[in-house]
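@channel anyone free to eyeball this complex?
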Amino acid sequence: ALAIEPIELPDVCQTLNSFQWAGVFEGLTNDQRIKLWAFIPVELQSTVLAVMREDARNQFIAVLPQQVIAEAISSATNAEVMGILDVLPKRTAAKLVNKLDPVMQSVLETSLSYSSNQVGRYANANVYTVNEKASVKDLINEIKSSDITNDGGSYFVVDDSLIYVGEVKISDILNSSQKTDVKELVIPNEKVILDQASLLEASDLVRGSNKAALPIVTKTGVFLGQFSIHDALDVFQAHYEEQLAHMGKVSDEDLFAPVAVSARRRAVWLGINLVTAFLASFVIGIFDAVLIEVVALAVLMPIVASMGGITGSQTLTLTIRGLATGQLGKGNFKVLRSKELKVAAINGVLWAMLVTVVTMYWFDNPGLSSILALAMVVNMTIASFAGIMIPMILDKLGIDPALAGSVILTTVTDVTGFFVFLGSATLLFIH
Amino acid sequence: ALAIEPIELPDVCQTLNSFQWAGVFEGLTNDQRIKLWAFIPVELQSTVLAVMREDARNQFIAVLPQQVIAEAISSATNAEVMGILDVLPKRTAAKLVNKLDPVMQSVLETSLSYSSNQVGRYANANVYTVNEKASVKDLINEIKSSDITNDGGSYFVVDDSLIYVGEVKISDILNSSQKTDVKELVIPNEKVILDQASLLEASDLVRGSNKAALPIVTKTGVFLGQFSIHDALDVFQAHYEEQLAHMGKVSDEDLFAPVAVSARRRAVWLGINLVTAFLASFVIGIFDAVLIEVVALAVLMPIVASMGGITGSQTLTLTIRGLATGQLGKGNFKVLRSKELKVAAINGVLWAMLVTVVTMYWFDNPGLSSILALAMVVNMTIASFAGIMIPMILDKLGIDPALAGSVILTTVTDVTGFFVFLGSATLLFIH
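replying in thread with the prediction:
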């Protein structure tokens, strides 16, 4: 479907796996991606699309002809198809689904009944299951004739209504007579993932188990597919990369998203920051009288705000991680708060002393140095307090602290820093 | 070894797996950890220690009696023991090793010959391998009698000198006569991990393969053990959490590390930040004449620095991720640079216009509003340029851009912002 221009690909491309191809594509512009697409072995295409980082995939699929997408997903697993359908306009998605074979269509229908954060949506139905009524002989024949891999040395067993009943181990199979029913060998497995679980919950469950994959079941016990430790790794990576992006005040975006798209997304963060910056400016504006009097205040005021900002950010980062991992809760947050306040106070006093010495040499004004030191200690302590309270409160309100926390914190440290520093200067210098 | 005080544990503790126990321990102070330790089932103890986040584990092991550690590691795998030995003083570590059984001692000796970032150090030797000379009958008997799980449906095959020769699939085993030598069924596997590979390289390899684990071999082909997708997940998580911590200007530290330890570690980041802050102050100090003349400059100058900081941070974050994932290199960094500069310029002009309107209402001074707008556009564009060049240069010098990048960037955006804003104000207002 795509015109193949004569491009010379390095030999190494012959041996790339789908992850490596995805990496190559993430490093290209959309124009280059389209040109290179035809060179990816057909059997890898759907996986390459599925494992590309989300926004890069979105940007690319948006410019890929429908027919090419249809070819790519014709051999895809249902979980891969879901990742691709997720980003297409509904009509286009519906058209594509209609072209797939009926079995896949019904699997996709089930997947589509879940929201984008529920693990049921991405249950990999492409796994081998044994009916409990099968005999050991049947099962062995199946294993002999197929290429199925049994992650973790056992197979999923279901009953006639596709209800998950447990697993059967290869050692038990080999130890039994060929006539035995699989039913007799089933080990009930309580480690299942409910279809409604979030992707992160599902990932934690697989990780905590010693298994390479866990079954996903509905409330009534119907087996939907598996969720593997490979899937868990993808989920964790996407989660952490999103958090990192947000800390850098950027969406989790394609390196080569169109300029207009990138500019619009970043504008949101810049706009929010501008409100914060103006707020700080207004606080400074309140004290313009003392700034005219003592110009050194304008020179030194960024130090107060900046040291408070870093202190708060340190506590905020630990608190957010503690909340995300479940290490931190009602039971121990007061212990942490008292610890963090002590750490901030110690560092506040330490660095305030150094700053006092430096500014005494610079401005030779004991009053100025004293209020600078005072403002630093106060701002750093309050910053630390805010660094633990802001995420705790956001978390209680159901707002992601990683997203909103640092903006609010910066507002607090800027406003507090300027207010305490310039306010005490006003008391000291304006008579 | 530890006195068990009468604590009532909730019933749920009975069912915790080692990951969940580790999570509980990370949320406790050292005093509480010691009290709770004896309640962990002995067979889980070594794993709990091994999967605890590194700094929490370090803090805890430092206060744990030697005999208790010895008990915990007596049933541990070599990879788990390595994680524990890594943080002990050399003498204590040597004493503990001497108490282990000779086989484990020799495995550990091999592990210890690798550096802490080489995958050879953490090769899990606790896996089942088949000698190529074994018959299918021997192998089947082995599978029948043991609880070995064959991650991915195949077994590692080695020769008499423990050289890794490939893998044998369960389907091939079942399809062959009992007298067949395993040797005839071996599928040579080129997907191996070299012992000298870094942990991140090894993790990428396992992830890119469709396998649940890959063999780790020496240069001469000797099988050392396996590296599983579970291990890869641990490595990725530690890597990302470290990056997140560094972006928050904090080491990857235990939530409940002692106050003195935390204060000392954070002081490093605060000290570096103070140098940056003073540099900005000196730049402002150059222009004190104009600040006395026009106090509104002091009110507005944080806006210029802050908008530049966010813009730079956005580009920096994407660049660092691009470098870390290999999406970004010599071939495409100019394309990205040009894109980022366009994005920054668009947003610079956009927000500068808004700021002009607001400040015109506020100060009614067209000259002031104009230089503010100019300084914003210049600073945001330079910030974006710096955001891509700083990590590229650091990467070339072999310095981790995630660690040093944002400090250098803040220095650039503060100094540039204040210099351009106050410098042009001096030209305009000082006659």
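from a first look: Chain A is about 65% helix and 5% strand.
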